[in-house]
Design a protein that fits this description.
Elements: H1 8-28, H2 32-38, H3 43-59, H4 64-74, H5 80-94, H6 102-109, H7 114-130, H8 132-140, H9 148-157, H10 159-164, H11 166-174, H12 182-194, H13 201-209, H14 215-231, H15 240-250
Helix pairs in contact: 1-2, 1-3, 3-5, 4-5, 5-6, 5-7, 7-8, 7-9, 9-12, 11-13, 12-14, 13-15, 14-15
């Protein structure tokens, strides 16, 4: 039975069971339950498992080395669901300690399966929001990687930090303004829009865009920023018209 086929009480019991069995694996230095849950067809079972790893890592210092060892072993699985869940589990750890899991992010960036690469993006987002310094330093290394997909994934991965602190990621985004690949540029424009509509963010984005030199990209970015203010009008600090007026006045 799938996770959300269960009622609330049954789901809570399932989470407790998964937590207990994974902790048992860690104490016994085994991976039987981990492998079972990491490879489950239900994405919510896998999510429960990687969240459990994150909680156990944060709660029990003595589990750190065994968790990293078991994740390393599982990351060699031929099953992309297992590798995806390993990457997500590493992302939970990276919210607290990035250095021990940087290897998993580097490996995941080049995984043959898109679900693992997407897990890297998701992990960078959640780590970057809470633990930005090492994550953004990691991202900076790949901004000009020859593989366009790597550049796109990195650009997307730093987005969440920018929603509250656009000043932290704008210098990195600026380095992509002359990227020749449409897919990378479109992601860059998407991120610029997403980091512009919360309170106090538009001002920071516009100030920084003044230092960019790619006029065509700047105009496309302004269009995207205005469109985002319209699409997210229930969540934006400013209306589209107010955002347009601000840009006309200050840009």
């Amino acid at each position: 039975m799938r996770f959300y086929d269960l009622d609330k009480i049954e789901r809570q019991a399932m989470v407790e069971k998964i937590n207990k069995e994974i902790y048992t694996d860690l104490k016994n230095k085994k991976r039987n339950h981990l492998l079972k849950y990491f490879s489950d067809e239900d994405t919510y079972i896998r999510k429960t498992a990687y969240l459990s790893i994150g909680r156990l890592y944060k709660t029990y210092e003595e589990t750190h080395s065994i968790i990293l060892k078991l994740l390393d072993e599982l990351d060699n699985s031929k099953d992309e669901k297992v590798r995806q869940t390993v990457t997500n589990a590493a992302g939970e750890i990276g919210i607290l300690h990035f250095a021990p899991i940087a290897y998993f992010m580097e490996k995941g960036l080049f995984d043959e399966h898109h679900s693992v690469r997407n897990a890297v993006i998701g992990s960078l987002k959640k780590m970057g929001e809470k633990n930005p310094k090492p994550v953004l330093a990691f991202a900076k290394k790949y901004l000009h990687h020859p593989d366009k997909e790597i550049r796109r994934e990195i650009c997307h991965g730093i987005e969440l930090r920018g929603r509250k602190h656009p000043e932290d990621i704008l210098p990195l985004l600026k380095e992509l303004q002359d990227d020749a690949t449409a897919r990378v540029k479109n992601t860059l424009l998407h991120v610029l829009g997403q980091i512009s509509y919360k309170k106090g963010c538009l001002e920071k984005v516009i100030v920084h865009l003044k230092t960019w030199h790619n006029d065509d990209l700047i105009q496309r970015a302004i269009k995207e920023i205005l469109d985002v203010h319209d699409r997210y009008k229930n969540f934006s600090e400013l209306t589209r018209d107010e955002a347009r007026e601000y840009i006309d006045t200050h840009f």
